[in-house]
Specification:
By secondary structure, this protein is an alpha/beta fold. The chain contains eleven helices and eleven strands. Helix 2 links the parallel strand 2 and strand 3. It comes from Chitinophaga eiseniae.
């Protein structure tokens, strides 16, 4: 900041109830320069039932968008585990016409609240290789009605590459890269699988240095995304408590900055993703059977005491032999989903 190397700020506007005065001043400066972007965490885009917390989230976004000017606003893909979906982990959903229409309905409401371009971030987590292969196409169809864009999180791609044995070259073919307006880079962690001995799962925990592979991804991805406008580095503040971690964070940022400068791309973005005329239905779209399945899955993941009991509960649930296709889920990823859900569960 002091060296004027930070050209834009991405703010998780729904993560902090009251920002300190110095940060509000910072937001104002970047907002006035059209260099402030908003990133939501807790909306739960695919919740099958419209919840009061979602309406409150939209009202907050509407209010904050009048106080600060966002160049764009984004949210996470998936639904949040937990009974109210606002104290849980973002996990995948079945790719069906029902979830597609719910997602489109919610994106329209987000755009109606902020009145600026809207986008979604690709997932780090998938239950199966089949889901990985469908994710990019589903994102493209989801975003079409709002002229939306993608945050291509390269560490999320790194997780998918490791967890499902894919290369960056294979993954890039699965995404509509012409829709990428923003790129994220970050670090994460490794977790040994008890369900599959010898298997190690990559997690998107934002608590470590950016891997070398992600920097290599960044050098490649910039040239593949003609509408790219922002590159953002993420790391949890709780992971920056030591002198070494702070020095590594600074070094990673400067390396990211140098990669961007070396590309020296001065041309304007191909697509500005400006909002289209909206037609928002008065009543939010719902699917109660989907909502009940989400509640059931959340409860199973959050309360399972062992992998065996987790699998027994899944097989006895309404998700069995359904559009969720749990029979094709990877055992290590089911175990990881439970670990994520239990970590995020509100105490």
């Amino acid at each position: 900041m002091e060296a004027a190397r930070v050209e834009a700020i991405e703010w998780s506007f729904d993560a902090v109830e009251q920002a300190p005065s110095w940060f509000e001043e910072l937001l104002t400066v970047y907002s006035q320069e059209n260099r402030l972007i908003g990133h939501g965490i807790f909306f739960s885009l695919f919740s099958g039932k419209w919840l009061p917390e979602q309406q409150q989230w939209l009202s907050h976004l509407h209010k904050i968008s009048r106080r600060y000017h966002f160049d764009h606003v984004t949210e996470h893909f998936g639904f949040m585990t937990g009974k109210d979906f606002h104290h849980g982990a973002p996990l995948n959903i079945p790719y069906t016409p029902v979830t597609l229409n719910i997602g489109r309905d919610r994106l329209k409401r987000i755009q109606g609240a902020c009145e600026c371009p809207v986008g979604l971030e690709n997932l780090a987590f998938s239950y199966s290789l089949e889901e990985v292969k469908k994710h990019g196409d589903f994102l493209e169809r989801l975003l079409e009605p709002v002229n939306g864009f993608i945050i291509l999180d390269l560490h999320n791609l790194y997780c998918q590459a490791h967890n499902f044995g894919l290369s960056f070259e294979a993954l890039k073919e699965l995404y509509p890269l012409h829709l990428v307006r923003e790129i994220h880079i970050s670090g994460g962690s490794w977790e040994d699988s008890d369900a599959m001995q010898g298997r190690i799962v990559r997690r998107d925990t934002h608590d470590n240095a950016v891997p070398e592979a992600v920097f290599i991804y960044l050098e490649k991805a910039i040239d593949l995304c003609p509408s790219l406008k922002y590159v953002v580095m993420e790391q949890l503040g709780t992971a920056l408590t030591t002198t070494d971690s702070q020095a590594t964070f600074r070094s990673d940022f400067l390396r990211m900055d140098q990669i961007i400068r070396n590309k020296n791309r001065m041309t304007a973005s191909l697509n500005t993703f400006m909002p289209l005329p909206l037609s928002i239905q008065p009543r939010p779209l719902e699917d109660i059977p989907l909502y009940q399945q989400q509640l059931e899955l959340s409860d199973i993941l959050e309360t399972a005491g062992s992998f065996d009991t987790l699998m027994e509960a899944l097989q006895a649930s309404s998700l069995a032999h359904s559009d969720w296709r749990i029979e094709r889920w990877d055992a290590a990823m089911i175990e990881t989903a439970a670990s994520i859900a239990q970590k995020w569960k509100k105490k």
